[in-house]
Amino acid sequence: MSQMFSQTLRQAPAGAEVKSHRLLLRAGFIRQLAAGLFSYLPLAKRSLAKIENILREEMNAIGGQEISMPVVHPAELWKETGRWYEIGSELGRFKDKNEREMALAMTHEEVIGDLVRKEIRSHRQLPQLLYHIQIKWRDDPRPRAGLIRAREFTMKDSYSLDADEEGLDRQYRNHYQAYFNIFNRCALPTLAVRSDVGMMGGSMAHEFMYPTPIGEDTLLICDACGYTANRQIAEFRKPPAEPEEPRKAEKIETPGADTIEKLARFLGIPESKTAKAFFAVATITEGTEDVERFVLAVVRGDMEVNETKLANAVRAKELRPAREEEIRHAGASPGYGSPVGVKDALVVVDDAVKDSPNLAAGANEDGYHLINTNYGLDYEADIVSDIALAGEGDACPRCGEAMRTTRGVEVGNIFKLGTRYSEPLGCTFLDAEGDSKPVLMGSYGIGVGRLLACVAEEHNDENGLVWPITVAPYEVHLISLGGGEAVAEDLYRELTGRGVEVLYDDRDERPGVKFNDADLIGNPIRLTVGARSLERGGVELKLRREQESELVPVEEVAQSIERRLAALRTEIEERVVEVPFEE
Amino acid sequence: MSQMFSQTLRQAPAGAEVKSHRLLLRAGFIRQLAAGLFSYLPLAKRSLAKIENILREEMNAIGGQEISMPVVHPAELWKETGRWYEIGSELGRFKDKNEREMALAMTHEEVIGDLVRKEIRSHRQLPQLLYHIQIKWRDDPRPRAGLIRAREFTMKDSYSLDADEEGLDRQYRNHYQAYFNIFNRCALPTLAVRSDVGMMGGSMAHEFMYPTPIGEDTLLICDACGYTANRQIAEFRKPPAEPEEPRKAEKIETPGADTIEKLARFLGIPESKTAKAFFAVATITEGTEDVERFVLAVVRGDMEVNETKLANAVRAKELRPAREEEIRHAGASPGYGSPVGVKDALVVVDDAVKDSPNLAAGANEDGYHLINTNYGLDYEADIVSDIALAGEGDACPRCGEAMRTTRGVEVGNIFKLGTRYSEPLGCTFLDAEGDSKPVLMGSYGIGVGRLLACVAEEHNDENGLVWPITVAPYEVHLISLGGGEAVAEDLYRELTGRGVEVLYDDRDERPGVKFNDADLIGNPIRLTVGARSLERGGVELKLRREQESELVPVEEVAQSIERRLAALRTEIEERVVEVPFEE
Q1: Each residue's pLDDT tens digit, A402-419
Q2: Where is the Aminoacyl-transfer RNA synthetases class-II family profile domain (chains A, B) (predicted)?
Q3: Is A79 on the interface with B (CB under 8 A)?
Q4: Quick check: helix, strand or coil at residue A454?
Q5: A272: closest CA of chain B, how far (Å)
Q6: Using the beta-carbon criterion (under 8 Å), do B31 and A135 form an inter-chain contact?
Q7: A244-266 tens-digit pLDDT
């Protein structure tokens, strides 16, 4: 430690609000270069190398072949799949010396596709699983929480190539299990949840979520049947409306009733007997052009609009709430809106609205509502779809039991891409009958730095980090105190000679400083040698996570350490279990 | 091999002119994504991992601590050192989502400096040696020779931090030896040559050159005393002029004598009795501004101008030959030029010109020369410096013996940067007396992909690659032929169980195809098992580099392989020797 570059800090720099971020800064693992850009110092680099090895082992175990693809991509390739146009400023773009447009990798489907169309000819070359561990750039306007949401990060991304759906399904399920193995080996609890495919496209996606209050995602969980989903796509059983004969709509004055709550109170009806309008502007890509469309979405008054579902329903690249002048321009009235009489709007109606008769809805005139509006009689929709947001207590779509919500950080994701990329890029193969077919692709990612940060977020106490043995930078933290230097040197040589990873605090510092740093850095086993411990008969051995220490005779230290390390590793191995696949 | 993603190619794609590039493409190691951008397929990835491990071992052996710094840098940092302005379009630049300027790493002195100024306070924290193995982007207008000159590449770059010159010198020499160890462990012959510091700055630099006709650099080598240098900075003993009393200059008509050769013939004098003018335009950075200056350089007629020396003499960021109108504008005449009577030019005179009396020089009038011009009498210079180009047969600056030239590829470089970065970035420390001093830095780089390509360029024959054991993707290439499948499977399991790396060709292909692929891929040991070899009593074992094979009984194969591998490794280890440091 007297030679180690990184120093511990008494206090984290200002602006580090998340625990793992503060601790990784204080313990000298990382330093910030600029917003969302981090350098990994020697301790972090060691932990990252361990995580990367776990990733390699689990990828190799399901047939992965490691490759390495560039970070800089020619824009042409991203234009071929349309993502050059579909993705906004999150994608890094620049021009090279010869004025050719280039993209910075935010993911590698395009480059894999280019490799595949050049290499794969026959079904005999399939299936394949390729992966690499490589830099990505995603320009987040609000990088936060340290490594959890960085702009530049290292990712393990794998890509499966198959001749048929069964093959893709097998590779998808292989990753599902491999990902649980990876997180379990890092001692990180995770849930797999169904998720939005987003800019990746494809037919199915799961996110692996580390449940934590600092998470930016909300998850719906059914403890009864195991249904779990990201709120962005979570379904739920909507309370059905009472069947009634449709009545004739009638305009009434509703002064000041510009919210659903006020309207229901004014009319003396439940919120479920009202219709709620939401106005948005969607950016939709038509060919290589982006066009803006005004969107009017309607959900029942007892529900909220889910903007992700809405964006997916209209295939929007981006979607934002409409401004008042845009709402008025369409002939609608904020606070008193509905599709009735609105012009030039893309109308999207939640399926529950369609099945709920006689709802009170806006009259598109300030201070007025219509009572007894009915879908099909008073207005039509361009799209009828589920666009409602699931929340705490909503009924599980599978079993009907009440669901709960929790927050989580996405630490991995898996996508069944199908032909989303192979078709535009022309990745085809000849099947056994000699017919040309598109390769079926899957894409699977884990952010390495984010995983490290989540492990730090999960494993710490008031004194610092408490690393699991599989991710700790070193296995043993050896402290020499006054009079223990010679024995410590010997132990250091003996332990490292046996292949034990030892961080040796040989500094000329007070015991308190050394103990505090050991706690802050968080290696699993601490050994302390000083004149006092030697007088008492040996060396003090303490697990980072426990309070009690044990006195071990010097000649038994190596054996004792090896026994402890084996036990710590067994504990981790026992976490690795088979997990049933949940659609 | 039936499952391996990469396929061998009968022919290299068009445009691959260099042997290593053709072979790495044909053998399925790499694929081009775009000009200067390459994907590394599984075979290359394995070889790269081995090279990276060698790099790590040698860096760790001299006290290196591995870290990882970002690829995307804030422009501010590059502005602080001035390189944002000094470096041209080779530096990748873009704006982030918030319109902040960003640079793509072409090297990491700035980021190291930023780390150092935040972490290093005291001399007790020095010396340090940090390194990482990370992506770089250098936008070459003419990427060529495959991995040898790529635009995106992985580099091992290390940075030393010292309190004094002795410390910097020690780290520089440590790298000098470590680099020879690295190249020797990769079985790549190299020379260390003194070189230009270029855009890196600093006081001393060596390049490690792999001598090969495909190299873009020319080296001067003295076999007598060991002096070696890149031609860009090579010095030489210039033949002295006969001492003579200066005579009065005189203008004479020299019709058509617009070259030195014609002039010398016309006047009946040796070329060494003439002065040669070279006109250039230099871009010079003054503060944050770039200005263009017209430069008139003069060497003796028996020498050529060295543009690198000239650029260094005038501290130019860029230097290009002047156009005719620029020459005329300065009052000079192309073909008949000299400093006499020229206005608004930065005049640079080679030291040999200063010491050579009575030279014939241009009169700056078409068709006329001056005879008997003398420095100090007929013209002055802004700068007198060595700006002459060394060539084949020139006298060694140390011992005077004739030097030879050879071409080479730069596979590594080491720079004594001194305070070039620590001063502008404010990297200071308090010395033992409590005085604030700038940290002394060194910077040391090896391109990983280029090193792989040079090893391929050095080790091949007409049938393909012939990898040294330390870089080969696999140690053993196992071929099963008809009737040998069961034995091959057993051997595969036995050998891999013993930790031997085996590429197993289990494909249903003709023997010729399998042998050709084995030769093309070039793993060091080939094992062939078929009904025929088994009838003859065993398995055919052949070294890739040898013609003869040996028949080994099945039960002795593992032992025999291990013996062969040990011998191959010993051969490499014997290459690793101490190399005396040559300034």
Answers
A1: 999 999 999 999 999 999
A2: 50-468
A3: no
A4: helix
A5: 42
A6: no
A7: 999 999 999 999 999 999 999 99
Q: Is B399 on the interface with A (CB under 8 A)?
A: no
Q: Is A34 on the interface with B (CB under 8 A)?
A: yes
ipTM of the complex as predicted = 0.90
A46 CB neighbours in chain B (<8 A) are 66
Evaluate whether A342 touches A364 at the Cβ level (below 8 Å): yes
- Is A74 within 8 Å of B34 when comparing Cβ atoms? yes
Closest chain B CA to residue A60: B42
Across the interface, of B46, B130, B141, the residue whose CB is closest to A97 is B141
Cα distance from A47 to chain B (closest Cα, Å)? 11
Burial code (b: 16+ CB inside 10 Å, e: under 16) for B89-112 equals eebbbbebbeeeebbbbbbbbbbb
CA distance A297 to B420: 61
What torsion do the CA atoms of B246, B252, B256, B258 make, to the nearest 10 degrees? 30
CATH of B30-234+405-457, one of 3.40.50.1240, 2.60.120.260, 1.20.1530.20, 3.30.930.10: 3.30.930.10
Question: In chain A, pLDDT over 90 holds for what percent of residues?
Answer: 87
**pLDDT at A297 exceeding the cut of 90:** yes
Q: Which of A45, A69, A104 comes nearest B67 by C-beta?
A: A45
A360-380 pLDDT per residue, tens: 999 999 999 999 999 999 999
- The sign of the torsion formed by the CA atoms of B71, B76, B78, B81 equals negative
Mean pLDDT along residues B7-27: 92
Rounded to whole angstroms, how far apart are CA atoms B51 and B63? Answer: 19
Q: Which residues of B touch A40 (CB under 8 A)?
A: 67-69
Q: Which residue of B has its CA nearest to A114?
A: B33
Instruction: Using a CB–CB cutoff of 8 Å, tell me whether A119 touches chain B.
Output: yes
Average pLDDT along chain B: 94
Picking from B5, B44, B68, the nearest residue to A45 by CB comes out as B68
Q: At B65, give phi and psi (nearest 5°).
A: -115, 125
Residues of B in Cβ contact (< 8 Å) with A27: none
Assign A141 a pLDDT band (cuts: 50, 70, 90).
confident
Which CATH number does A464-573 carry?
3.40.50.800
B508 touches A: beta carbon within 8 Å: no
Q: Which of B5, B93, B135 sits opposite A135 (nearest CB)?
A: B135
Among candidate residues B193, B339, B224, B229, the one with its CA nearest the CA of residue B278: B339
pLDDT band at A194 (very low <50, low <70, confident <90, very high): confident
pLDDT tops 80 at residue B249: yes
Q: Which strand (E) or helix (H) includes residue B541?
A: strand B539-543
User: Integer distance in angstroms from the first to the last C-alpha of chain B?
Assistant: 49
Tell me how far apart the alpha carbons of residues B154 and B132 are, in angstroms, rounded to a whole number: 10
pLDDT in tens, B259-302: 999 999 999 999 999 999 999 999 988 877 889 999 999 999 99
Q: Which residue has the tokens 């997180």?
A: A183
Complete DSSP assignment for B143-197: -BTGGGB-SEEEEEEEEEEESSHHHHHHHHHHHHHHHHHHHHHTT---EEEE---
Superfamily of domain A250-385: YbaK/aminoacyl-tRNA synthetase-associated domain (3.90.960.10)
Peptide bond into B553 cis (omega under 30): no
Q: CA-CA distance, B304 to B294, in Å (whole number)?
A: 19
Q: Which residues from chain A sit within 8 angstroms of residue B115, using beta carbons? A: 31, 39
What residue segments make up the domains of chain A, in order of their start? 30-234+405-457, 250-385, 464-573
User: Among B40, B42, B114, whose Cβ lies nearest the Cβ of A33?
Assistant: B114
Cβ neighbours of B59 in A, within 8 Å: none
